[in-house]
Write a structure and sequence with these properties.
Length: 502
């Protein structure tokens, strides 16, 4: 007789979305966190391997190609997915129209990239980027045909299914990039990895969701979705100009090699905080949408998201800041050392971004996406005013300072608006951020003392510094939790209880 295997109850409950909104939100957060851990785990190994094989110029070439694709993708963003998630009631009648528009958009982006590639390459004075830009355009074509039904994984907080969908792309990219890099030792390894990820996700999207859309364009429905999506589009455009404008500026002014260094610094400095931000963003938006009209529930949900985000992102940024020189020299090798000052400056950007993101998801969730668009426009204006003189003066570190200054303005604006909307109070808001800052400061001072006392030139010493920092942070947080009633232990216990299904 065939053997039967039973799934333990505690594991089985995690495979289900849960009953109440709190339980569904927490379990969804766990799955999104799993997605990001998987992505960053494989991404970290991938980064180390290819950083040792490829040169900064290769990363710069790929960055320029991705910049061109991201520009077109952003400026043609429909916002339909966000509109479907936020929209109350049945949305099945809108799926075919949304899918059709997505296909048309993907085909349009591919066509423009193909014919504009020589001009983009000439603008950055890197003619070898022409074919790279043309080939990565295929990825947008593939993405356009993906099953629109996967949007329901976010709408219904079924992130257990979203995990398997995204993990397939992560694995495809990892396997193809690493194997191809070892063989070709060129930038094309990154290109082929991107294409493999899009192809696999396209196939999996139809295997994992029963929706079978067909071509149908209802202009009335498209207009209705775009009524909400236009604000998402506007916000995405200004966010793109901010987040990618510095890349374009560095690539044009300083060259492909400097762009490769700058993008690597950005990625390392922001990776942990960005992943945490992404976890909470993807879960919080649909949760906030379901809490429209419930001010008390919205306030409680937001403060919990803020507390968790600050508790995790602030110490990670502090650790990256203090250990940046050692990590770069030991793990990535000395050819990447010129990026260290920029990396350290950008850790502050990562923290600010994490805090502002917790607020930014409230606005579309309560049907006010225009707030994010307006404040992002102000941030873009600040960046445009300061990036040129600072980059001319200090190179990629100057560009990093410009990004941080602009983010400070946005964070202040976002925090002010979310305090008004949720009525959470400045004192509660500041307290949830202040206590992790104190614990992180203690951790950074301890690591700095150890660095000045002992030799830290080996991988073993680096690991010991990381362990010491983690222990110090959790120890300081535990004491603050007891004496200042921070509430982190009770929040963790509540989250674990919901995960177990108790």
């Amino acid at each position: 007789m065939p053997m039967k295997f039973s799934i333990p109850k505690k594991v089985k409950c995690l495979l289900e979305p849960g009953d109440g909104l709190l339980q569904r939100t927490i379990r969804s957060g766990a799955w999104v966190f799993a997605i990001r851990i998987a992505g960053q785990g494989f991404g970290f190994v991938r980064m180390i391997i290819i950083a040792r094989i490829l040169a900064p110029d290769d990363f710069g070439l790929f960055g320029i190609a991705m910049l061109a694709m991201a520009a077109l993708s952003t400026f043609t963003q429909t916002g339909f997915s966000a509109a479907l998630i936020q929209k109350k009631g049945k949305t099945e009648d809108y799926l075919n129209t949304a899918w059709t528009v997505t296909i048309l958009r993907g085909g349009g982006i591919f066509t423009v990239l193909f014919f504009a590639a020589p001009y983009v390459a000439a603008f950055f004075n890197v003619p070898e980027a022409t074919n790279i830009i043309r080939v990565i355009g295929v990825a947008t074509l593939l993405d356009g045909f993906a099953n629109i039904g996967v949007v329901y994984f976010q709408k219904e907080l079924e992130f257990n299914k979203q995990f398997f969908y995204e993990f397939s792309g992560i694995m495809a990219d990892f396997v193809v990039v690493v194997s191809t890099a070892l063989i070709l030792r060129s930038v094309w390894a990154l290109v082929f990895g991107l294409l493999a990820s899009s192809m696999v996700k396209l196939i999996v999207s139809y295997r994992i969701h029963p929706c079978r859309p067909h071509l149908s364009l209802d202009l009335a429905k498209a207009k209705e979705l775009f009524g909400f999506g236009k604000w998402i589009l506007g916000s995405n455009i200004v966010v793109f100009l901010f987040s990618q404008g510095d890349d374009g500026f560095v690539g044009k002014l300083l060259g492909a090699a400097s762009l490769g260094l700058y993008q690597m610094a950005y990625r390392i400095s922001n990776a942990p905080t960005s992943e945490i931000t992404d976890v909470f963003s993807r879960v919080a938006f649909p949760a906030y949408s379901k809490l429209q009209g419930n001010l008390q529930g919205l306030r409680q949900a937001y403060l919990k998201v803020l507390q968790f985000s600050a508790f995790l992102s602030i110490p990670l940024a502090g650790g990256i800041f203090i250990l940046a020189p050692e990590f770069t020299q030991i793990v990535l090798t000395v050819k990447w050392m010129p990026m260290v000052p920029a990396l350290q400056v950008l850790t502050l950007f990562g923290v600010l971004r994490s805090i502002s993101a917790t607020a930014g998801n409230v606005f579309p969730g309560v049907g006010k996406p225009q707030i994010a668009t307006k404040w992002n426009s102000i941030r873009l204006g600040v960046l445009a005013a300061v990036i040129y003189p600072l980059t001319i003066r200090w190179g990629i570190m100057g560009a990093s300072i410009a990004v941080v200054l602009a983010q400070i303005v946005l964070t202040i604006g976002f925090c002010y608006m979310v305090i008004q909307i949720t009525d959470c109070g400045l004192r509660n808001f500041s307290r949830l951020i202040g206590l992790p800052l104190v614990s992180t400061a203690i951790m950074v001072l301890l690591i700095f003392g150890l660095k000045t006392t002992f030799d830290t030139t080996g991988i073993g010493q680096l690991i010991l510094l990381v362990v010491a920092g983690i222990a110090t942070y959790f120890g300081a947080t535990y004491l603050l939790d007891i004496f200042c009633n921070y509430g982190m232990r009770s929040l963790i216990k509540e989250s674990l209880k919901s995960l177990r299904g108790n």
